TrEMBL record:
GO terms for molecular function: iron ion binding; oxidoreductase activity. This is Aldehyde oxidase/xanthine dehydrogenase a/b hammerhead domain-containing protein. The keyword Ribonucleoprotein does not apply. Residues 1-26 are annotated as: Disordered. Residues 62-180 form the Aldehyde oxidase/xanthine dehydrogenase a/b hammerhead domain. Signal peptide: none annotated. Keywords: Molybdenum, Oxidoreductase. Gene3D superfamilies: Aldehyde oxidase/xanthine dehydrogenase, a/b hammerhead, Aldehyde oxidase/xanthine dehydrogenase, molybdopterin binding domain. Transmembrane segments: none annotated. Residues 16-26 have a biased composition (Polar residues).
């Protein structure tokens, strides 16, 4: 069967339509947001800059950003990928002759033209049950023998113009032999399911027994569940999500034949880690590849790892001897980007007769898609398990996960990345436990919260929470939400013919991710200090935070400090900006590098000032001989050090590079949502949202608030709207455009949004920071779904997204039951 690129689908699905006119941008103004912030920075020598503006925004607002597609197109080859229209098929033949003859075509590549490139799948080892290794599926940059999902790249056409490349791609004829497909992970585990890989029985990549592979613990928890006074049980589903950043993926590759060196300008969350992944895939030395990342129009985990297109672009640049540029369109992104979530969890919580938690068991089935995405299994296993038991004292835990292959796009990191899954099942279980025991949901939570006096608290899976004041945060959230007067608000809604519900969601997550991160401080001249970092800035405000931090630590004006990242040639160790890790790991690296630079500066200053090194002190931008007025400024010393090194009098300058390990931290909090429902139509609105977060010491309140609000927006999307739907018989992505895939808009964000801070400094890093990037998404799902169940009890076991139709049906069932 000959086939061309798949056409965009436009079929209706059960997603809530976005049919309201959004309010003006004023809906996000300070006048509609009541903000309550506290700070505990006093005495910690940590800056507290509530009103510091984001320095990145001026250029972006004026259209002066430089994104992937902002590249000089003159003389550049334009790439278009030919993609599979089938979810599972054998490639019989690929005919490229007609395409190669088309006007303006530079060439056409297939897998046969890329013999030296290895598998795109790169993942750290994670032991399964009994020490079993992950069963990896080979992922070629261009499909060679089979296609495993709709949208998998089969060929690449390069032409002088994008139009010519698109026209020629239509002439690449692929003969497929279609094979049976499976899109559901639980179905893929069944004995009669299609076997996707000859070497991977039952499509099971990994059977993970939890952080501790201990049969005795499993047996003990089974016994507790059988004999406990009460057991709450829930089955919760995290639907598949399309990440959909504003800027799609793309890249521009080049190759210098003289130096035998590749260059890739690409949107990423860390140029250095992207370089390392691609060098391994290409089978080349790291020094033979430079990766550059400039402005990034949204990432959320999507742009943290390598994709098949990138090594193909690099190979094409060498083969054709010119720069090659590719930019995905939105339809292509729907069928080629990693997707998110897609798992089902069965949770069980045992309680004694007084409502004390005894044990929790969770069994999750994770849909990996056709291949293992970067860190994909890590999210479903370790990231997930580390969140248990959240803020509750649960003596026994048994967490197990099965990671399964299907004929869908790979699932990868997306805001939260395992944290929303864990906290969602816990908070749905706690509300279910309140129903089972008859104990008020507030009382039940208070009875089981870990007290501050228990810190540091070692969990049943071996993780240690270093700090936290969970009961205090819970009470603070109830006060912020005016919980005591909720019944009055409920009555007012009922008087207007509407149903009102309030949902509680305590949460705990972990931030930091991979602990190693570096920083590089350089003095390029003109009284300027560059703070060079590995972690990529994808909207978090790095250029606002890090220069201010350096200026505060050194006692100099922030105008002298500049920020740079996004160039692998800086050769700074570390990982991408994921897992709310940047401020924790890079911030710590910056502090430690400053300390090392000052010590180096004392040695240099002693030489210049002809004093003993022990008599040199640093303060307020100058090195001084103690007890005298003899001193030299920081920037003068930096310039002098270069001069002395050139003369051979000293061996080093003030430029300082360092990498350090920083332990994880555990942000936590309590979020409360109020919803109002029109029972005759099922229309639902999140009318109020309250958040109290412990993200440790806050370096910039505005950025913290923005992170909480952004996470909430994505949580609202998952709770109420978003759902990536595949056709079960063909494996086609039905929700292949924004005509079918509903995204949150301005009017979905509650007009009453109050966020408060309860910062308890982390004890594991010098800044006392914990991270906040995942908090809004992690907490909001259960807050909203529990609020819906509070308003409509028949919705207690409703799966996300809570669409208009689902809510309406639940309202009808409730009315019939009455």
């Amino acid at each position: 069967m000959a086939a061309r690129r798949p056409r965009e689908r436009a079929l209706a699905v059960e997603n809530q339509p976005c049919n309201k006119t959004p309010p003006s941008l004023r809906s996000f103004s300070a006048e509609r947001i009541n903000r309550h912030h506290e700070s505990t920075t006093a005495g910690r020598n940590v800056p507290d800059h509530h009103n510091d503006p984001r320095v990145e925004d001026d250029a972006l607002i004026r259209g002066r950003g430089k994104f992937v597609d902002d590249v000089e197109k003159q003389g550049v080859g334009h790439a278009v990928f030919v993609r599979s229209p089938h979810a599972h098929a054998r490639i019989v033949s690929i005919a490229t002759d007609e395409a190669a003859k088309m006007p303006g075509v530079i060439g056409v590549l297939t897998a046969a033209d890329l013999p030296g490139i290895g598998t795109v799948t790169r993942h750290p080892p994670i032991p399964g049950r009994g020490g079993a290794k992950i069963a990896f599926s080979h992922r070629p940059p261009l499909a060679q023998h089979k296609v495993m999902h709709v949208g998998e790249a089969v060929a690449m056409v390069v032409a002088d113009t994008l139009t010519a490349a698109l026209d020629a791609a239509e002439q690449v004829m692929v003969d497929y032999e279609e094979l049976p497909s499976v899109i559901d992970a639980r179905a893929a585990l069944q004995p009669d399911a299609p076997q996707l890989f000859d070497t991977i029985p039952n499509n099971l990549a990994l059977d993970w027994p939890g952080p501790v592979d201990d049969p005795a613990n499993v047996d003990a928890i089974e016994q507790i569940l059988q004999t406990a006074a009460h057991v709450a049980r829930v089955t919760v589903t995290h639907q598949r999500m399309v990440m959909a950043p504003m800027e799609m993926r793309g890249g521009t590759a080049g190759y210098d034949a003289k130096t035998e060196r590749y260059t890739l300008r690409v949107c990423s969350q860390g140029a250095g880690p992207m370089r390392d992944m691609l060098a391994a895939i290409m089978g080349i030395d790291r020094s033979a590849l430079r990766v550059i990342t400039e402005d990034v129009g949204g990432a959320f985990g999507l742009k943290s790892g390598a994709y098949p297109e990138y090594p193909t672009l690099l190979a094409a640049a060498k083969i054709f001897g010119r720069k090659i540029h590719w930019m995905a369109n939105r339809s292509e992104a729907f069928n080629s980007d990693n997707q998110a979530r897609d798992n089902v969890t069965v949770g069980e919580l045992a309680l004694d007769e007084n409502g004390k938690f005894l044990a929790l068991r969770a069994r999750q089935v994770q849909n990996l898609g056709a291949y293992v995405a970067s860190a994909g299994i890590q999210l479903a296993t370790n990231n997930y398990a580390r969140c248990f038991p959240a803020v509750y004292d649960i003596p026994k835990l048994d967490i197990g996960v099965q990671c399964v292959y299907t004929n869908t796009l790979p699932t990868g990191p997306y805001r939260g990345a395992g944290r929303p899954e864990a906290n969602y099942v816990i908070e749905r279980l706690v509300d279910e436990a309140a129903r089972v025991t008859g104990i008020d949901r507030v009382t039940l939570r208070r009875r089981n919260l870990i007290p501050a006096s228990a810190m540091p608290y070692k969990t049943a899976i071996g993780t240690t929470f270093d700090s936290g004041e969970f009961p205090e945060i819970f009470d603070k959230a109830l006060t912020l939400a005016d919980f005591d007067n909720f019944d009055k608000r409920r009555s007012e809604s009922e008087a207007n013919g509407k149903l009102r519900g309030l949902g509680l969601s305590c949460f705990l997550e972990h931030s930091g991710g991979v602990p190693n991160e570096g920083a590089y401080l350089t003095f390029p001249g003109k009284d300027t200090l560059m703070v060079n970092l590995n972690v990529g800035n994808t909207g978090q405000g790095h250029a606002t935070v890090y220069p201010r931090l350096v200026a505060e630590k050194l006692g100099i004006d922030v105008v002298h400090v500049k920020h740079k990242s996004g160039d692998s040639d800086l050769d700074i160790k570390g990982s991408p900006s994921v897992a709310s890790r940047s401020t924790i790991t890079a911030g710590t690296a910056v502090v430690r590098t400053i300390e090392a630079m000052i010590e180096k500066g004392k040695t240099l200053a002693a030489h210049v000032l002809e004093a003993d090194e022990k008599d040199i002190a640093y303060a307020s931008g100058a090195f001084t001989v103690i007890g005298t007025d003899r001193q030299i400024g920081l920037f003068d010393l930096a310039a002098k050090a270069v001069e002395l090194k050139d003369k051979g009098e000293v061996t080093d300058t003030l430029d300082t590079k360092l990498d350090v390990d920083t332990p994880q931290t555990f942000p936590n909090g309590c979020h409360i949502a109020e919803v109002e429902i029109e029972p005759e139509t099922g229309e639902l609105a999140v009318v109020a949202y309250y958040a109290v977060d412990d993200c440790g010491v806050m370096l910039n309140h505005k950025l913290v608030h923005g992170q909480v609000q952004g996470g909430l927006a994505q949580g609202i999307g998952q709770a109420l709207l978003e759902n990536a739907v595949y056709d079960s018989s063909s494996g086609q992505l039905v929700t292949g455009s924004f005509m079918d895939y509903a995204m949150p808009r301005a009017h979905h964000i509650p007009s009453l949004l109050r966020d408060d801070a309860h910062p308890v400094p982390a004890t594991t890093n010098p800044l006392g920071v914990k991270g906040v990037g995942e908090a809004g998404t992690t907490a909001s799902l259960a807050a909203i779904m529990n609020a819906i169940a509070d308003a409509v009890p028949t919705a207690a076991h409703m799966d996300m997204p809570a669409t208009i139709e689902k809510v309406w049906r639940a309202c009808q069932e409730m009315q019939q039951a009455e």
